[in-house]
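**Archive record**
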Amino acid sequence: MDNRLRKILIVLIALPLLLLVSGCWSTVELNDRAFARMMIFDKGKEGIELTLGFPLPNRMIPGMAGSGGGPQSGSPYTFITKEGVNVGQALRNIQIDLSRKITLGQSSVVVIGKELAQEGIAPVLEFLAREPRVHINASVFVTEGKGKEIANIPTICERFPTDILTAYVLQHETMQTTIKDFLMANYTGGDMIAPLLYFKPQKIASEKGKLQDWMGVGGAAIFKNKKLQSTIGVKEMRGALWVVGQLADAEITIPSPSDGRKVSFFIEHSHTKIKPQLSGGKASIQLQCTANARLLSSDSMLDAEDPKQLKELEHQLETEVERRIMSVIDKTREAKSDAFQFGNFIAWYYPKQWKTLQPQWVEHYSNRTAEVIIHADIDIRRLGTETKSVELEETTS
């Protein structure tokens, strides 16, 4: 009797578990999905022009084209462009022409064309905020021209254009600005800074010398109230990397304090701390930047082992870093944009005072009533095997 009861009990426990492993009626099989890895937004004639980048499963095996086993006849990816009065309609128009269900969960890159960015990216943010399938950590880029020009670039080192843009961010060659950053900035006025891309016709040796659009890092775009206000160059963008704490390394060349000749250093292990100060109703932002440096090359006759000369070199480096950071901050002030979200730091440290300061904050920041104080601390750690220049060694030998 006990064995029968035990068996019945086991069956009763097992049946609900079997229900858990049953399939879901609403799922879409992988073979029926089209995975969009890149979303590109441009201004259309009557609304939004949306371009999606898809990998092609039948060309994913190098040297093969699907199950037929023949030679590969094209790129392993494609771009599809459609227009609509809004993003949702443009997406639907792309879906109508596809034999597979569009899946946006694999999208890791968002590209916005300059003309649309100048008009305002509110429609794009509206879609991204409401679409649950889009990852908010996807990187956002702005282009000098049409965003869909990226479809024409040659993929030399990578298989997909998405991988090139992802590598720019991972290697810290440009800034990383995500959908989440834009959505958070939207609640405090929509001021933001994002990486900028350029396309330039160039003959590519590996492509038999054909003239193709070469893509590269072109600086950064400054937004004010969700609209592109101005752009900055690559050097200023590198200064922005210091501010947001994304600088992995840098090369800085300075004149020697002894004879004015060039001395180059490699900067690494950088760190930036931002702390606001509020005194007498006036706010200031303090940036504390620290980093290590190692000597790369020297045309100078200086002796790097001399503590006095080494200290002067460190001071020169610190001055140059402070100058680069202040240069990009001045650009955001000219655009009247709190692109680095300094106001958020005041709100975190002084929440009560921020309620009074907030309405005039951007004005205080842009007209320099709110001071930005930068202090760099660079420590020269390594001088290499040659502490003196080769020319100095020859002179003294």
Observations:
- The CA atoms of residues 303 and 309 lie 7 Å apart.
- The two ends are 104 Å apart (CA to CA).
- The longest strand covers residues 262-279.
- The chain has a mean pLDDT of 86.
